[in-house]
Amino acid sequence: MSRGLPLVYGLSALGAAAVLLPLGVLLALGLGSDVALGGQVPAIALNTLLLTGLTVAGAILLGVPLALLTAYTDLPGRGLWTALLAAPLAVPSYLGAFAYFAATGAGGELSALTGLPVPNVDGLAGAAWVMTLYTYPFVFLATRAGLRNLDATALDAARTLGMPLPTALVRVVLPRVRNSVAAGALLVALYTLSDFGTPAIMRLDTFTRAIFVEYNAFGLERAALLSLGLLGLVAVVLLLEWLVGTTREQPGRTPRLHLGRTGRAAALVGVALVLLATLGMPLGVFTLGVLREGSGGLDPLLLLRSVSASGLAAAAAVLLALPVAYTATRGRVGRLLERVTYVGFGVPGIVLGTALVVVGLTLDFLYQSLALLVLGYVVRFLSLAVGNIRAPLERAEQGLVGAARSLGAAPGEAFRRVTLPLILPGLLAAGALVFLEVMRELPATLLLRPTGFETLATHLWQVYEAGAFGRAALPALLLVVVSGAAVALMLRREQGAAER
């Protein structure tokens, strides 16, 4: 073992401890408190479970047929439609909720344009509708990947034996991709449980909204207890996700289903309606706002603060992820430390923010400081950086670095002259991904930002609370662009991993 290895392991352990710190704080505060939540929890838990269940069901009902359509049929322009149907991932659900809230109801954009009464989209139904629209791509992409892995032989045999196509799809094809559907559905459930903006904008009392209300009312102990309840639900979903495996078959000939002229027309109309609801609505509402209000008096400092905080968080996350990724290539202890970092991404932002507020109150020099905000970002998104760095680092360690060491290069020299150039693209991708995710993070920023420190995301929230929707248009469009870049990076990383 080289002399620097203990230091690397120490830094990795520090990163893992930082990720586990919020959980320890919540346990200490919540379990040690003597406050009672009364009858609040059952109603909140019921709303949270109903929203999650309805969203998962909606995502499956929307995502699975779209996956079949783009994977197996002769739909014209399937590649383009596939990319567009995955694009709603680039719109944070709170932006979609904001657009629907501004467009519907008396005085909304749709009523103003058509002159017709348009009902409000809010409450449980509205939240489930919006969450479905912006989470179905998880099911769509997972199911489509599973379908593309199947061979057409079994489907052809069922059709030859006289089974109608719809029956064959349900009884022969879908059972073979049920694990892929389940994996996508569990991601939808995790996203829904963690989301704060959509339930809050739709005025639905879920765990995330209740935690924020308690925080604003200085009820930190009650917020901690509610956070523990939410973490319990998240833990159940993560456990189920871990238990669900993917079923792999030997790739073969992909089925090709002919829709016919009427079928193709109906399919194109259906796809167009989905895209209109997911992309057309928010982009149309925000574009109208920009055309009507211009910049809306947007302060350039908002963009500067967003960029500066995101840049600091990205740099810190990459620096901390490097030793974690390195130790993960060295043995079981390192792999365990790497797994711990993934806990942070599973913790909802509102829960993480609550825990770190308690840390700030305990350590006065951190309270409402930029350092605490950056720490929250690093804990939340460290795993994204680790995931981008580990693969190129592992390949470097297995190849040219070993050759350099065998030729007499010292560890530091081998890292500087061989490892660093090889992993530099991974470092840049990791920093870019963390940067983009931090730019659109809302709940953790709301709780941890210093006084007067507003970002694009928090400005959007302030505008929503003030009811000045026109001023939200430009920052919302900027966040859509940022989110699109983040999703493109993630999909490119997943595609590269699959190809390797």
From TrEMBL:
Primary localization class, coarse: membrane
Record flagged with keyword Transmembrane: yes
Membrane topology: Multi-pass membrane protein
Keywords of the record: Cell inner membrane, Cell membrane, Membrane, Transmembrane, Transmembrane helix, Transport
Membrane-spanning residues: 7-31, 43-68, 80-103, 123-142, 181-202, 222-244, 265-291, 303-328, 340-359, 365-386, 418-436, 472-491
Subcellular location: Cell inner membrane; Cell membrane
PROSITE patterns listed in its UniProt record: ABC_TM1
Domain ABC transmembrane type-1: 45-244, 303-490
InterPro entries for this protein: MetI-like, MetI-like_sf
PANTHER family in alphabetical order: FE(3+)-TRANSPORT SYSTEM PERMEASE PROTEIN FBPB 2, INNER MEMBRANE ABC TRANSPORTER PERMEASE PROTEIN YDCV
Entry's family note: Belongs to the binding-protein-dependent transport system permease family.
Protein name: ABC transporter permease
